[in-house]
Every structure is written in structure tokens, then in C-alpha cells.
């Protein structure tokens, strides 16, 4: 058998394979003859690769840090200060009592010149918008299409009023809409806050219909948060649209509006604030944030620090390899280093 096989395949390369031959068709893939990159990592290569990475990364990191440094941010935490001192013992009673005075005045000083647009955010803390039962309690169909107003099943426990009428927009997310309000003035003159275009355009155009109007919203005995104007379609209720894009983390900021004038250093801004929203029952913080932006967005040092760390590490490794190479160089592929050679040398 074996000699037979040897004769059939003997002069194989020059003859075309015979018809019933078991020999596989020749291809460079099956024969593992495809071209491949087989770099030899010489010290020069390794050191220059590390150096190149550090030369690229460190300047990017510095640019990111500078951009973040240029952003001016004013943060004012107010959930305690906006409760009158004699009522701070029981903040929950204060916020739940509709007769208490919720208006509160805050004074902010601008630390550095702030170029417009200045973004106004509210920041909540310890608020788990990512909780499973909360996230699922909404109906995108109902928001999109007036036909589905009555047939929603996913909004439990905020789907119907006590008398069985459908709630639009339904669900816990809409129900818990943030309802603190802010207005700003400087030198007794109002600073206008532009609340248009604070939500995603795709949300306004696609997810929230201009034919669906709020109905029976916040009409129950337990009010969860803000109310909506029943004459405005959902696509124009931008605070709701922003609120319903749920945050992934328990500390989050949401856009409230934009101030479209420059603020100069040391100017005093007076904020008149309605402290309505109940974060006291779960110990959440409330903050008002005014912030400018750079080409990289808001204030955040993480990206810059990450780039500089990686770049710096690569630079350090490059230097270390250079030092090792200079102090104790060796020939590449020296067979004397092979274990069996070393052993025999030892014997
Ligand atoms: C604001 O929301 C709270 C719940 O967090 C509610 O008790 C209160 O009635 C609401 N106030 C207004 C003015 O909508």
C-alpha cells in the first residue's frame, strides 16, 4: 500500500493530479503558505514603538487637560440650605406640606469670565433612574402614536387613574418628572434661560409625537413630580424628554436650559429657586450647575490623565529598555541562551 501511494504521488508536482486521486487540491491556504507578518522584535523596534506611543499620547493628554481646565463651572448644592432653618429637623414634612414656602434665593459669584452659551444643569444624587422596575415603567408606543393611548400594558403602576382613564404619558419615569425651577437675575435684571433645544433632536422628531397630548397626568392623590401643560404636544415638552432619557448612574446631571450672554468675573448672580422636588425621602442631594464647555465638552480631567498616564508609562518603558540595552547588550538570537545549551555548558 505505502509503496503504491508513493508511486502515485511520486512525480506529482509536474503532472496534473489524477482523476480519482485522494490528494487534496492544492491551495496556498490549505498548505499554510499565505504571506504573513513575522516581525522580529529587535530592541530598536521595541524602544521606538514605545517612544512613538508616548510622543503621540502625552501631547493629546496635555491638550485634554488644558481644555478641561478652561471650563468654568459653578456648583451650588441647595437641598439643605433651601429649607428654612427652623424646619430642618424634619425636611420631609417641609417638602410634603403644600403650604410651606418653597421659594429660595441663592447668590452665586462668577469665579472667571464665562463665555456663552452657559449650560444650566440640575444634578441629582442617590437617584437610581436605572432601577429595573423604574426603567421599564414607560410606554414608547404611547409616546409615539395617539392610537396606543389606551392600550398600554407596560406602565404599571402609573398606567390608569383611579377611575380607569389612561394616563398620558404613563409610567413611573414620567410621573417622577423633576419639578424644581430656577430663574436668574444679575443687577436686578433678568437673565433669560433658553429652554428650547435642550433635548435630542431625534427624540423630539421620532420618539415623542407632536400629536400626543398629556392626559390625566399627575391627577392622582400622590403627586410624583412636575406637571405638564395639556395643550402642548409631547414633542414640545422638552423637560419631560430630557427626564425620560434615563441616566445610567445614580449621580447624574440633566440639562435645564442655556444662558446666552457672557458673564464676567466676580459678577453676582441671584438665583430664585422653587425647591419642590422631594429628594428628602431617599436622602438625595440636589445641585444647580452652571457650566461652559470646551471642544471636549464639560469639565472632566479623566481623559487627559488617562492619556498622560499611558504615554508616560510607555516613555518610562522605552527609557528602561534603552538603559538595559546599553548596560547589558546581547546578540539577537544567540543560541548560547537556549536552556539546553546553557545546561550542557554547566555540565
Ligand atoms: C413637585 O414634586 C413633588 C414630588 O417630588 C410633589 O410632591 C409636589 O407637589 C410637586 N410640586 C409641584 C409644584 O409640581
TrEMBL record:
Protein name as catalogued: ALA-interacting subunit
Subcellular location: Membrane
Main location: membrane
Superkingdom in the source lineage: Eukaryota
GO cellular component: endoplasmic reticulum; Golgi apparatus; plasma membrane
Chain intervals for the UniProt region annotation (Disordered): 1-26
InterPro entries reported for this sequence: CDC50/LEM3_fam
Keyword Mitochondrion: no
Annotated family: Belongs to the CDC50/LEM3 family.
Membrane topology field: Multi-pass membrane protein
Biased composition (Basic residues): 17-26
Pfam families: CDC50 (PF03381)
Keywords: Membrane, Transmembrane, Transmembrane helix
Transmembrane region(s): 45-67, 302-327
Amino acid at each position: 500500500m505505502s509503496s503504491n501511494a508513493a508511486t502515485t504521488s511520486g512525480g506529482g508536482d509536474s503532472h496534473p493530479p489524477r482523476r480519482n486521486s485522494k490528494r487534496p487540491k492544492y491551495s496556498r491556504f490549505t498548505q499554510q503558505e499565505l504571506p504573513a507578518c513575522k516581525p522580529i522584535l529587535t530592541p530598536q523596534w521595541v524602544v521606538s514603538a514605545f517612544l512613538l506611543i508616548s510622543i503621540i499620547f502625552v501631547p493629546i493628554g496635555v491638550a485634554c487637560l488644558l481644555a478641561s481646565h478652561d471650563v468654568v463651572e459653578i456648583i451650588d448644592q441647595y437641598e439643605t440650605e433651601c429649607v428654612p432653618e427652623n424646619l430642618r429637623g424634619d425636611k420631609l414634612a417641609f417638602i410634603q406640606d403644600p403650604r410651606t414656602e418653597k421659594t429660595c434665593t441663592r447668590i452665586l459669584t462668577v469665579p472667571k469670565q464665562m463665555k456663552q452659551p452657559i449650560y444650566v444643569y440640575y444634578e441629582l444624587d442617590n437617584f437610581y433612574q436605572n432601577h429595573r422596575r423604574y426603567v421599564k415603567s414607560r410606554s414608547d408606543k404611547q409616546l409615539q402614536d395617539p392610537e396606543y393611548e389606551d392600550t398600554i400594558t407596560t406602565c404599571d403602576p402609573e398606567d390608569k387613574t383611579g377611575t380607569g382613564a389612561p394616563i398620558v404619558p404613563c409610567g413611573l419615569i414620567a410621573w417622577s418628572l423633576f419639578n424644581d425651577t430656577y430663574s436668574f437675575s444679575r443687577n436686578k435684571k433678568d437673565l433669560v434661560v433658553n429652554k428650547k433645544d435642550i433635548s435630542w433632536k431625534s427624540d423630539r422628531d421620532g420618539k415623542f409625537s407632536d400629536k400626543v397630548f398629556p392626559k390625566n397626568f399627575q391627577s392622582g392623590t400622590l403627586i410624583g413630580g412636575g406637571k405638564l401643560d395639556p395643550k402642548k404636544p409631547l414633542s414640545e415638552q422638552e423637560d419631560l424628554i430630557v427626564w425620560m432619557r434615563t441616566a445610567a448612574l445614580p449621580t447624574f446631571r440633566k440639562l435645564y436650559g442655556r444662558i446666552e450672554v457672557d458673564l464676567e468675573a466676580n459678577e453676582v448672580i441671584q438665583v430664585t429657586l422653587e425647591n419642590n422636588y422631594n429628594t428628602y425621602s431617599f436622602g438625595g442631594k440636589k445641585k444647580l450647575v452652571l457650566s461652559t464647555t470646551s471642544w471636549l465638552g464639560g469639565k472632566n480631567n479623566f481623559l487627559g490623565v488617562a492619556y498622560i498616564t499611558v504615554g508616560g508609562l510607555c516613555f518610562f518603558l522605552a527609557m528602561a529598555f534603552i538603559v538595559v540595552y546599553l548596560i547589558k547588550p546581547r546578540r539577537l538570537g544567540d543560541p548560547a541562551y537556549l536552556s539546553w545549551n546553557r545546561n550542557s555548558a554547566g555540565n
